[in-house]
Design a protein that fits this description.
875 residues, alpha+beta, Herpes Virus-1, Phosphorylase Kinase, domain 1, Transferase(Phosphotransferase), domain 1, 4 domains, five-stranded antiparallel sheet
């Protein structure tokens, strides 16, 4: 029993002291009824494995391989610690188990570290219980780890998209229903995923990308998540932005079916949007419920359509070409927009245009009208005239009168709504007349005959008027006029959606009984609306994805690769950059952060602005600071947070959730007196803390669990101006010209950099830090940039003529900017001989560069003149 107890204690202790190889579990004792049992001679008991050093793999003992405990909790033998290469930072060493930089006693060496008494006791007990001599394992030299092929996407990119990807076993495809695009969603209880499902659901799939197996894929088998990430990474930024817009819109939209996330089908190597499906399609309701003599049913369905379209407008979406299949009905008979079916309308409209081109101007259109009406009401699409113009233009047809045409906007959906309402009243006759008109209108566009198109429109509207007269008579004159306005060729002449809803409501409630007060119609910004059918998501797939057949089946890709948007680095090399200005602040930009699909910018104007990464439009402003906001960071957790701090010592914690709340979740104050200037820097670690660098020369650690002050780190002799976190180390830079390293486990000091020896040239205050893996970069007041690679300092780099206020590092790329109003891009190249720094290019500016941020191939630059410039390059 003593042996069993010691074995159990050994297993528990080994979980805290990892070994370089795994050990099989100890043999389990077998209980027999006999008092004496001799083991078989050919089945001798194996000696138990002993705790061993992770470097030399020798079992620990109290003589030659004494286990010494490091600050990170791992143990290694004394002799190995003594022989390990020491970092140039004094009083530190890198743990051989986790490579973390930890304190190291100097000059005593490893003998001053505590022994791991538990490991020694377990080793002694196991040796005594099994006296069989254990042959020592010869020591092997420490070798460098093998080189692995890195992922092309960044860690930030992976974190941003990983929670949108379904687990591979969450969805199963029913082969019998594949052509109907129906799948079964299994029970999903993963708390990290954005949706939690309680049972089986039928959902729709829409293909958005295809995994290409390149040369690397032939040698290495990518995992499920890696394949999904590869497809996303290969997409253009505008396509990624549109996918994110669809995902977010379904979360915050009213009367919009959910788009749950993304799922990769390993059978066809395609990435799909997973969309909610309601049980009943609106086309089925119309066919079964709408009677030609029942105006009440007509008014009820029309009102539901208006409310569903209103939900699209709330999230800035337009499709401009409605179909009955785009709407579905829930159990309470409310109408919802099915985004999956909206996207499926695209190939039908494109097929209509391509058929017009293939038929030629001499065709009378009967074949097309027949093709579009064979399947009844389910497949009818009613594109607005301005949408047809954009489709023809995107197909590469040069329209002579393109400048005089109207743009697609919210009123384009009013056209489609009017067509569906007339369809409810007039039936198949309206479908035939409308298809003939659209066919002729497309031909007029292609042939450049604008007058012919206007004539066709007038003739069609007369026929529609006759159909409405026969159906409505003289009782609903106002409704007839309103439907006429919905079908106006000029979008600005069409009525508001609220006016259509009020007119349809009069079928039930007459004006004299209307107790609802009139309200001012909500103004909509046409410039920020996004048309799904004209978006890059669909048009980037039209060369690689076959047009759906008449059953709406999504066919496979042809195998062509997706187009990749070029990186801003390439724009530096070719001196060809596109610049977008973001204006909204009233004073100098002091900090930038990205997360949750948003760009956060803080300013001396005491505010934090939130910008959408889709279109870079301003979406919200966090207000509450009473002093200049000096720093801002994003915290990737559930729920996501934004933290901002000002030079008055106030810290505001904001929730990043749409719709944004006006008030902060928490307000903290670190306390100061008149001698100090509040907070100058912020940083966040994965260990559950965020850090503030202050004017009182200290760094404070705040708990993310209860927002309490955990500890204060003191050592600098001036303002702490910048902070950075990497590889379990907190780096702090100060106006005193030094950089201090702190252990994130216990917030103890590790090392001090920049304490120049007498007679050497100091670089002045440290204004910005960047850390990535084993590389540390510091920007100084005199324009010099210092670099440490693998703990080895390099020669200072002088690329700026004056103070460098901000640097940003992403892998081998280093961006810097400052007082000289210039952004400089440099490349860090390492080989056996050392690290080489090469200047790639510069961007001259009109104002001082105050902050920099690089994200997914785009460069964000904050200036002292209140503007934020976004640089990109499309090759």
């Amino acid at each position: 029993m003593v042996t069993l107890y010691l074995l159990g204690k050994l297993l528990c202790s080994l979980s805290h002291f990892p070994s370089s190889r795994s050990h099989p579990p100890p043999p389990q004792p077998t209980h027999h009824h006999h008092h004496h049992h001799e083991p078989p001679l050919n089945n001798a008991m194996e000696p138990p494995d002993l705790p061993e050093c992770p470097v030399c793999l020798q079992p620990f003992d109290n003589e030659s391989t004494i286990p010494r405990v490091l600050a990170c909790g791992h143990s290694s033998c004394e002799s190995c610690l003594h022989n390990l290469p020491k970092p140039p930072f004094p009083r530190t060493i890198r743990c051989p188990a986790c490579t973390q930089l930890v304190p190291y006693p100097h000059p005593q060496g490893p003998s001053a570290l505590p022994k791991n008494i538990d490991l020694l006791r377990i080793t002694s007990s196991l040796t005594q219980s099994n006296p069989k001599t254990l042959n020592p394992i010869p020591k092997t030299p420490i070798t460098s780890p093998p080189n692995f092929i890195p992922n092309p996407w960044s860690h930030q990119f992976h974190n941003h998209w990983k929670n949108w990807v379904f687990p591979h076993d969450a969805i199963s495809i029913d082969g019998s229903n594949l052509q109907a695009r129906v799948i079964n969603l299994k029970n999903l209880k993963n708390p990290s995923f954005r949706c939690v499902f309680k049972g089986n659901h039928e959902v729709g799939l829409f293909k958005v990308g295809f995994f290409m197996r390149n040369d690397v894929g032939k040698l290495f088998e990518y995992g499920y998540v890696a394949k999904a990430m590869w497809v996303l990474f290969e997409m253009k930024d505008v396509v990624l932005g549109e996918i994110e817009l669809i995902l977010m819109s379904s979360l915050k939209g009213y009367r919009i079916c959910m788009v749950y996330g993304l799922w990769f089908n390993e059978e066809d190597d395609c990435l799909y949007l997973v969309c909610e499906r309601k049980d009943v399609s609106l086309s089925n309701v119309v066919v079964s419920d709408l009677q030609y003599d029942n105006i009440s049913s007509f008014g009820l369905i029309g009102m539901e359509l208006c409310e569903a379209m209103s939900g699209l407008r709330e999230v800035g979406l337009v499709f401009g070409c409605a179909s009955l299949s785009c709407y579905c009905v829930d159990e309470f008979r409310h109408v919802f927009v099915d985004l999956n079916e909206v996207l499926m309308v695209y190939p039908r409209v494109r097929k209509m245009i391509m058929d017009c081109v293939s038929f030629g101007p001499d065709d009378d259109g009967r074949r097309l009208a027949m093709d579009l009406t064979n399947d009844g009401l389910k497949i009818h699409v009613f594109p607005s005239p301005e949408l047809l113009v954009e489709f023809v233009r995107k197909e590469g047809v040069d329209l002579e009168f393109a400048k005089s045409t109207f743009s697609v906007g919210y009123s384009s959906d009013v056209w489609s709504l009017g067509c569906m309402l007339v369809l409810f009243l007039a039936g198949k006759s309206f479908v035939e007349e409308t298809n003939n008109f659209l066919f002729g209108y497309i031909l007029a566009l292609i042939n450049g005959n604008g007058d012919d198109g206007d004539g066709l429109y007038v003739a069609w509207l007369d026929k529609v008027s006759g159909l409405l007269d026969a159906r409505l008579g003289s009782k609903y004159v106002f409704m007839k006029k309103l439907l006429h306005k919905c079908l106006c060729l000029d979008p600005e002449s069409r009525p508001l959606l609220t006016d259509v809803w009020k007119c349809l409501r009069e079928v039930f409630i007459k004006p004299k009984f209307d107790v609802m007060g009139s309200s001012q119609p909500k103004l909509t910004n046409e410039s920020v609306c996004h048309c799904l059918l004209l978006g890059d998501l669909l048009w980037s797939l039209n060369k690689t994805n076959e047009v759906d057949d008449e059953n709406g089946v999504m066919n496979r890709f042809k195998g062509e690769n997706l187009v990749v948007e070029s990186d801003v680095v390439e724009g530096f090399c070719k001196d060809s950059l596109i610049c977008t200005d973001l204006k909204g602040h009233l004073d100098c930009i002091s900090g930038l952060a990205i997360g949750g699909g948003f760009l956060f910018s803080c300013s001396f104007d005491k505010t934090v602005n939130v910008w959408s990464l889709q279109g870079f439009n301003h979406v919200h402003t966090f207000k509450g600071h009473e002093h200049k906001v000096m720093a801002v960071v994003f915290v990737n957790r559930e729920p996501p947070l934004c933290i901002s701090a000002d030079n008055g010592g106030d810290i505001f914690i904001w929730g990043v959730k749409v719709p944004f709340e006006e008030n902060a979740i928490k307000r903290l104050n670190e306390g100061k007196d008149w001698r100090y200037s509040g907070i100058h820097a912020l940083a966040v670690s994965e260990s559950g803390f965020f850090y503030t660098g202050s004017g009182d020369k200290s760094i404070k650690a705040w708990s993310m669990h209860d927002y309490s002050l955990s500890c204060t780190m003191i050592g600098h002799k001036a303002v702490v101006s910048t902070l950075a976190v990497s590889n379990q180390v907190l780096y702090s830079g100060s106006w005193d010209g030094t950089i201090r390293l702190w252990c994130l486990n216990d917030h103890t000091p590790l090392a001090v950099l920049g304490e120049e020896a007498p007679g050497t040239l100091a670089c002045g205050s440290v204004l910005s830090l960047a850390a990535d893996g084993q590389t540390l970069v510091a920007a100084h007041e005199n324009g010099r940039i210092k670099i440490w690679n693998n703990d080895v300092p390099l020669n200072p780099v002088s690329t700026h003529t004056n103070s460098v206020f901000s640097i940003y590092m992403d892998g081998q790329w280093l961006f810097s900017g400052g007082w000289d109003k210039t952004v400089v891009l440099q490349k860090l190249s390492s080989d056996e001989s050392g690290v080489d720094v090469t200047q790639i290019g510069t961007i001259p500016g009109d104002s001082v560069v105050t902050t920099l941020l690089y994200w997914q191939g785009k460069l964000f630059v904050g200036h002292a003149d209140r503007t934020i410039k976004v640089y990109s390059f499309e090759g």
